[in-house]
Amino acid sequence: MDKPVAALRKLPSVDEVMRSDALAAAIAQFGRIAAVAAVRAVLAEARKQGAAGSDVAAFAGDAVARLEAAAQPNLKPVFNLTGTVLHTNLGRALIAESAIEAATVAMRNAVALEFDLGGGRRGERDELVRDLLCELTGAEDATLVNNNAAAVLLTLNTFAKGREAIVSRGELIEIGGAFRMPDIMSRAGTKLVEVGTTNRTHKKDYVGALSEKTGLILKVHTSNYRIEGFTKEVGARELAALAHEHKVPLVNDLGSGTLVDLTRFGLKHEPTVAEAVAEGADLVTFSGDKLLGGPQTGFIVGRKALIEKLNKNPMKRALRVDKIRLAMVEATLRLYRDPDRLAEKLPTYRLLARPLKDMQELARHIVPALQDKLGAGFAVTTAPCSSQVGSGALPVESLPSLAVSISVNGRGGGRLLTALSNALRKLPVPVVGRIEKDALLFDLRCLENIDGFLANLATLQPPEAV
User: Are 129 and 219 contained in the same domain?
Assistant: First the structure.
């Protein structure tokens, strides 16, 4: 008999491994079906590699490790040290504690989502936040959907399906994931009418495009880019007057949207929703998970008669928000009633307004710990850097920040930094930074759990510098 075949015959059976003590605990935790599948997979891998052995405990340990790895969630928390506060790929806004608590209550209990407790009959879920939105924006009425792209889609479909929507060429934006405004308009059943040029659009351009086929005029705040130099746009107030003269609604899409003047946090002023309403827009759309600092949501505020039409569109049901998100939205909006303490309670503004001295204190602990972990082959220092808001908000605004900078002493710098970056992303809590100018940078603006960060480094296996 061939030795490899004889060796394979010495492998334990599935039943033998399943009877081990280690698998008994695993069965209780993960279930028998999953445990059997893991044992079979481990034994199959051993046969494929021509491995030998009859150590039941070893195979049981491998099976348990496989089960534990499979049980890890795919959506993992990470340390966001990229320098982008509202990082789209990392989940955008962190949620306020009061909103988290409200979501937990909604998840654990039956709630009056669409039930009028006063009258004892069916109610509307939008009523849970309508008054708050009207109070904070000055609008007559309000509704919400699952994101701002949906808000724009619903609005276009309601008022310009089979009709025309007039937009300046300089406002035909593309948002993340290659979603373009013209594509959204097409899906809404709206015919796009472009006016003006990329950098200059005049009132006469809109006037020339207005006709009996016009469903609405759409103004889009270019929150994710800026055109500077020889430029011209028609202001919202002037555009509102023109739209009303021709009896068509003006829709102002603010994109990120903000409910407060950002200058109080040391940022450049962005048009607020209340300002857009006051300037005469019939409807204003904006996001909930960007500058507003809440969960992913799209808001539409404006004239009551128009909001009622939006809510009667069958598409609204497909885009509605669930009880968990509604609970978070309500709790987040309540924080705006006290704007003076917003930075204390809302993570987005706490991080955007974070003083440099906080980051300097973090660096004082991180630099020696990282240097000790990485060894003499790497140099760990601090370096001034710039953070950004992210998620298409304030694209040219930068925030003075501080980074921990890791460079290589010796050859192979690029390769070693890439290897180190990969190793950091494999930690129990992945660490995400950025490589820039021959250094791996950890922008400290969004790091708050310093103890957790340092403990997380314990399992790091840094690449060896040459």
Answer: yes
Phi, psi of 141 (to 5 degrees): -155, 170
Strands 174-175 and 179-180: antiparallel
Closest CA to 151 of 292, 348, 260, 267: 292
Closest CA to 287 of 175, 139, 193: 175
Distance CA 52, CA 45 (A): 11
Same domain, 216 and 318: yes
pTM of the predicted protein model: 0.89
Q: What is the pLDDT of residues 69-108, one digit of tens each?
A: 999 899 999 999 999 999 999 999 999 999 999 999 999 9
Q: Considering just the CA atoms, what is the radius of gyration of the chain in Å?
A: 28
What is the rounded distance in angstroms from the CA atom of residue 137 to the CA atom of residue 302? Answer: 9
Task: Give the integer Cα–Cα distance in Å for 462 and 460.
Answer: 6
CATH of the domain at 258: 3.40.640.10
Give CA–CA dist 98/207, Å, rounded. 48
Domain range for residue 336? 97-343
> Considering 343, 374, 405, which residue would you say is the last residue of a domain?
343
Secondary element (H or E) of residue 165: strand 164-168
Q: How many CB atoms lie within 10 A of CB 224?
A: 17
Each residue of 270-305: pLDDT tens digit? Answer: 899 999 999 999 999 999 999 999 999 999 999 999
Q: Which of 343, 372, 401 marks a domain boundary?
A: 343
Q: Give CA–CA dist 305/139, Å, rounded.
A: 12
- CA neighbours closer than 13 Å in the CB half-sphere of residue 395: 12
Residues 55 and 172 in one domain: no
Residues 6+ apart with CB under 8 A from 4: 50, 52
Are 239 and 122 in a shared domain?
A: yes
DSSP strand pairing (393-408 vs 440-443): antiparallel
